[in-house]
Amino acid sequence: MDPTLKNKVTAALKAEIPTLPRGLRVGAKYVLDHPSDFGLDPIRETARKAGVSPYTLVRLAERLGFEGYDDLRAPFRQALVSAAVEKPAWVERLREEGEPGRIQAEAALNEMAIVQRTLEGVKAGQIERVVAMLLAAPNVYLTAARASYALAYYLHYVGRMALPSLQLIPRHMNSPIDDLDTAGRDDVLIAITFTPYSRDTIEACRFAARKGMKLVMISDSEIVSPEFAADETLVASMLSTHHFGCYAGAMALIETLIAQLVTRGGEASRLRIASYEKLRRESQAYWAGQKKR
Length: 293
Description:
This protein is an alpha/beta fold. It has 14 helices and five strands. It starts with a helix and ends in an 11-residue tail after the last helix. The model has no long low-confidence stretch (mean pLDDT 89).
């Protein structure tokens, strides 16, 4: 089997997804978002997870030129690589401490695995393109909502020292599109959103795309909406052992981006950081305990 077939199928799905009927689009997005599960699961289990019928998956395979579902799944099965991480001794000790220890151990293993999976999937060339795009833009807007807002706030709080053009929106409890109204084609929007995607964030992305702005997304999928295409998408795994998504991988991705911005910012970045630190010391921004005499 052609070892590059999985990549070719993935590229074909990305190209086709905007034109697919709704059912096929849902199935295609599931394959793109969960390639490992797709490679492992039988058709009925994949259909259940994707929320479509088995027949829809057969139609998707035929749409891509395969004779049947198993032929479509084969390259994903061949390329399947275990995402398991080495289990440290302290994790095994946790398991021996009853149910609370078991829950903590499973959560810890999951967090290590998704950080590894996320960082393995981000190529140096892509981060380099993103950083170059941000440094060249007159204005860089950053938006997120609900749980993702915490990530955006941190990226803005630290990142603006290296990238003074970075602006967190919306301001003053507005809609993000209010702040994008005066943005130009050379400006960039960074949008952070994960399943289930925030309507405000998606609307901001659509608005930016209509204005011709450049768009960088930090998300759990390369295909967030068929209505627009990002210039770059940094994908973070959100797999979790509890009801909500786990943000450890996304945070690691943002830290990687900040590291590149600070380094590429050079002397100007270093001077801005030093200025911020001096200002905080002089304004006594940080608590310090009284020294013992």
